[in-house]
Specification:
Length: 230
């Protein structure tokens, strides 16, 4: 009896494997996309290790799909492994050079590694490809100031690019806080304080963030800043 059950189990497992591999061989693209969808769900849930495993399976089956490399890069970015993330975002861009999200994420990796020249280049590319992406534009401004050591040319670029951001974008406390950092770096105290005050009014958590943010060192001594933050 036990022997019979064991044989049945072996047959069932073998049948399952045969079905799986036949399905993969018949339609590898569909199977790869299934891995990709499951992997992305795991990434959203924070299960990056399992997500990476599925994205790598998808790449093995369909190595010319940039989305799989991009999603794998997101996993490494989430783990703060920025060098590895850069590798996969670059692979995605080799296949699809005009993918704005990949340029943006690659730029974020460069910025996280304090390589503001690289960050500036890819934020600019993201803006060129998608001019209405205010997050990419404001990140481009910040990386320009860092890359060009806040010189006169950098400040000129910064004001020009900030003027291109739609007023609606400044309804976001994050955008306002980013703008406040930029104006502070440029020592434009009035606009820095105005943007920071609005950001804190909309989201009080930015009060504590401002305390530790070195970008506000140019205005930290001001009584208005102290009233806002402390």
């Amino acid at each position: 009896m036990r022997k019979t059950i064991l044989i049945i189990l072996i047959i069932a497992v073998a049948a399952g494997l045969i079905w799986h591999f036949s399905k993969t061989m018949m339609d590898p693209k569909k199977t790869a996309e299934e891995y990709n969808v499951k992997g992305y769900d795991l990434l959203v849930e924070g299960e990056t290790e399992e997500a990476k495993r599925l994205f790598k399976r998808a790449i093995k089956l369909t190595p010319h799909d940039p989305n799989y490399y991009y999603n794998l890069g997101l996993c490494y970015h989430e783990e703060q492994n920025y060098e590895k993330a850069k590798e996969y975002f670059k692979k995605a861009l080799e296949i699809r050079p005009n993918a704005s999200p990949a340029h943006f994420e690659l730029a974020c990796c460069y910025a996280a590694l304090d390589d503001y020249d690289g960050a500036r280049k890819h934020f600019k590319k993201a803006v060129d490809l998608k001019p209405d992406d205010h997050e990419a534009r404001i990140s481009y401004v910040y990386s320009t100031l860092m890359s060009m050591k806040n010189n006169v040319a950098a400040r000129r670029i910064a004001y020009t690019e900030l003027d291109k951001i739609s007023p609606e974008a400044f309804n976001s406390p994050l955008t306002l806080a980013q703008a406040a950092c930029i104006y502070s770096i440029m020592n434009d105290q009035r606009l820095a304080l105005r943007c920071l005050a609005r950001a804190i009014e909309m989201d009080p958590t930015f009060r504590d963030r401002a305390k530790a943010n070195k970008d506000f060192d140019n205005i930290r001594h001001l009584p208005e800043f102290k009233r806002l933050v402390y």
